[in-house]
Amino acid sequence: MDIATRVYNHKWKIDPIVRSLIDTDFYKLLMCQSVFRNRPDTHVRFSLINRTTSIPLADLIDEGELREQLDHIRSLRLSRGESTWLRGNTFYGKRQMFRSDFMEWFEGLRLPPYHLERRGDQYELTFEGLWHEVMLWEIPALAVLMELRSRAVINDMRRFELQILYARAMTRVWEKIEKLRAIDGLGIADFGTRRRHSFLWQDWCAQAMIEGLGPAFTGTSNCLIAMRREVEAIGTNAHELPMVYSALAESDEALAQAPYDVMSDWHEEHDGNLRIILPDTYGTKGFLDRAPDWLAGWTGIRIDSGDPAKAAQIALDWWRARGEDPLEKRIIFSDGLDVDSIAALHRQFAGQAMISFGWGTLLTNDFRDLVPGNGLAPFSLVCKAVAANGRPTVKLSDNPEKAMGPAGEIARYKRVFQVGDQEKIDVVV
Amino acid sequence: MDIATRVYNHKWKIDPIVRSLIDTDFYKLLMCQSVFRNRPDTHVRFSLINRTTSIPLADLIDEGELREQLDHIRSLRLSRGESTWLRGNTFYGKRQMFRSDFMEWFEGLRLPPYHLERRGDQYELTFEGLWHEVMLWEIPALAVLMELRSRAVINDMRRFELQILYARAMTRVWEKIEKLRAIDGLGIADFGTRRRHSFLWQDWCAQAMIEGLGPAFTGTSNCLIAMRREVEAIGTNAHELPMVYSALAESDEALAQAPYDVMSDWHEEHDGNLRIILPDTYGTKGFLDRAPDWLAGWTGIRIDSGDPAKAAQIALDWWRARGEDPLEKRIIFSDGLDVDSIAALHRQFAGQAMISFGWGTLLTNDFRDLVPGNGLAPFSLVCKAVAANGRPTVKLSDNPEKAMGPAGEIARYKRVFQVGDQEKIDVVV
Asked: Is A164 helix (H, G, I), strand (E, B) or coil?
């Protein structure tokens, strides 16, 4: 190693986990631009929620280290090269996906303050402010907590134990890729930024997918990795749009309409493969049954909770009922996938529609059973909009284990969206 | 990477496999010093023998590349630091193991010419000259051929396939080490220089043994690695001593005596843990039965062919018959070992004598079944003294599959050494 590099490395007070504002999911930037235009005055609160309460994050992770990492993220600004890439690159076949007014704002952005407090063996981490600013905290906050937890577990390991740990993890990922390679006509993207083992590990996994799958690897949700590895940035929209729109609704009638308002705003901004319905925020079945006909003209649907095969069947039936040909539609599976479920879903649906997969945590963080006590197993950490303009948000999804919001509001939403009994499914990641 | 390092690396015409005259087995240097003193005028021919004829070395390895590697070895001289280490280090508890006259000669040494010719799909590689010069070709010649074969197979592999190959090989070695760690009172050394996958790989394996086994790892036969990793250099003597002494014998009586002459010369030079009998050159049983009593006073025995449990039992019985207490004796197993046989032999003999293991090819070259076609599996390549002062050498060992020499001479040796029927055992490595 040359002296200059060593001296440069000595200048870091910490080893930063997130080193770029575009080390985030592509859909956050698409949604951010949409919010920046359509709801620029909305105030929100985002909050970190550890669904796996058996993992005592506040015992594992030093508060000072966590603050240093979060402070470092607040010091980040979009670099010139990153801005050039966002302005000049083609996304989903389209040049200038990001408008000039948005880019000018983004170039000046620093993330807003955070609020961190220890509560028992967990951290309470919240972000408040303008929606389009606060929303960009979600992915880096999750990535920092996931990686600090990895570091805490790995800290005691010796050099060769570490080598073997990564040798085993690499072998595991590669064997998964070899299985995926056998699936004819596969299309799969990396959706694993938020709950990755570490940045370097996600970057390695993406490179392994590039080399192992070739064109079957359609890209990564991570903008920084997409830029560096010269692959497609992948993603469309997420639950936070209907959740915040719904929280802002002034009446039950407006609430019932809110999820379609989201789609309507999106419809104006995007076409083609970016017109992907995320139907499960308040129950897939009801959402589709009550959807306006123009929504059946959209390109596809993303299945993100509940039994994925049942949800896919609901979508196929819905398209057929609306006179659409499912063979021209795309179904994107993105919930808790691993190779076996990917293979099974592909087998079941490949002949009925265009199928793609967004593979997340079990691509970029499958360290299950690799250390004693299983201390590196992934767990269910999320960072969600919990309030908008002072009102609580609600998410139901197709799995009551993923529902969130105050009980009274959940009951109201279930009534408004006519959600009946739901099947409980364990949330692993 | 800094520019100077890159420029420096560009200067290499080839990527040399053997970069030091002490990248060799310690016992070669001990034997070399002995020959330098006791038989300085002996002329020998060493020859490469590929016992695994199914591997077409001449098809796999380019002759030009092989010549470049061998030429590079001929350009090597003992470095100042290497000389300092050999002169100043403690070996087997003894300072100045290497005498000044030997070191002065070694400091001026360059290896003698080689003779290389293609014969069908194999190479004929021979070395002729003074014994103490030619003998130092054995280990580097083997290491070069083994590593060029590895490189030939690996050459077509892509970057991630290579990463996974080494990830799997590392995991395999580490899992072996974890099994060895469970053996109470184990003492084991690396004997894997000659048939290693590559130099870097042997160096990694040695470091893994250091970290994984602690004091149960007693050292390595490789002098360069012993020096760099600051562990013991391990080894005593080999078959070439009795083979050459025997070839030089002028009569059957002198032949019958020759293996004991070797021991007698060694007895004068060494004591303690260096007094290790290698009894199998012409049959273990007969050698021990006819041995002089002073040999029973030696510290131990090395088992290098045949059924190791049977040979160990023969040694135990022999010591008891000679009034020696086997609990004060050392048995060193060194033939074709892997973790299961090491565990079994330890279990069987640990209570009856001091036990150690010299673990060779299946430590430093267990790439079995890691590439399609099993093209990286280790194989049985040796480099032996085949003639001394114009007379052929003979080796019988305790396994007729390892016998070598002209048929007539083999018959004569079997008669002189009263070797009866022998059990055939497949030679894997």
From this structure: helix
**What six digits make up the tokens of A239?**
């639950």
Considering the domain architecture, whether residues B360 and B384 belong to the same structural domain is answered as no
Q: Interface pTM (ipTM) of the complex?
A: 0.80
In the beta sheet, which residues pair with residue A114? A127
CA–CA gap between residue A413 and residue A400 (Å, rounded): 13
Nearest chain B residue to A210 by CA distance is B160
For residue B191, what are its two tokens?
């004997």
Question: Binning pLDDT at 50, 70 and 90, where does residue B2 land?
Answer: low
What pLDDT, on the 0 to 100 scale, is given for residue B247? 98
Same domain, B148 and B266: no
Same domain, A175 and A303: yes
A207 to chain B: closest CA residue: B160
- Are A103 and A151 part of one and the same domain? yes
* A420 lies in some domain: no
Give the gap in angstroms from C-alpha B140 to the nearest C-alpha of chain A.
28
Domain, as residue range, for B70: 14-156+378-392
Scanning A350-409 for CB atoms below 8 A from B yields none
Do A78 and A92 lie in one domain? The reply is yes
* DSSP-assigned letter for residue A373: G
- CA-based R_g, chain A, Å: 21
Banded model confidence at residue A6, pLDDT cuts 50, 70, 90:
low
What is the tens place of the pLDDT at every residue in B377-402? 999 999 999 999 999 999 999 999 88
- The predicted-structure confidence for A91-134, as pLDDT tens digits, reads as follows 999 999 999 999 999 999 999 999 999 999 999 999 999 999 99
CA distance A171 to chain B (A): 6
Distance from the A377 Cα atom to the nearest Cα atom in chain B, whole angstroms: 19
**Closest alpha carbon to B208 in B182, B170, B162, B169:** B170
Alpha carbon distance B37, B393 (integer Å):
21
- Which residues does chain B have within 8 Å of residue A211's beta carbon, measured at their own beta carbons? 158-160
Amino acid at A96: Q
Does some domain include residue B143? yes
Give the CATH number for residue A39. Answer: 3.20.140.10
B233 lies in the same domain as B286: yes
Which strands make up the sheet holding B188-190, listed edge to edge? B217-220, B188-190, B354-359, B330-333, B300-303, B276-277
d(CA A353, CA A346): 10
Q: Is B290 helix (H, G, I), strand (E, B) or coil?
A: coil
- pLDDT at residue B1 greater than cutoff 60: no
Distance of CA B46 to the CA centre of its chain: 14
Say how many domains are in chain B: 2
Cβ partners under 8 Å of residue B275, min gap 6: B236, B266, B267, B298, B299, B300
Chain A residue closest in CA terms to B209? A160
Does position B92 have pLDDT exceeding 70, yes or no? Answer: yes
**Average pLDDT of the segment spanning A10-28:** 89
Question: Chain B, 123-182: which have a CB under 8 Å from a chain A CB?
Answer: 158-160, 163-164, 166-168, 170-171, 174
In a domain, A415, yes or no: no
Are both B28 and B111 inside the same structural domain? yes
| B224 and B198 within one domain | yes
**Gap between the Cα atoms of A208 and A344, Å rounded:** 22
Residue with tokens 């070259």: B365
pLDDT tens digit string along A230-266?
Answer: 999 999 999 999 999 999 999 999 999 999 999 999 9
Residue type at B263 in one-letter notation = M
Q: How far is CA A86 from CA A78, A228, A238, B46, B329, in A?
A: 10, 12, 20, 67, 74
Q: Is residue A428 part of a domain?
A: no
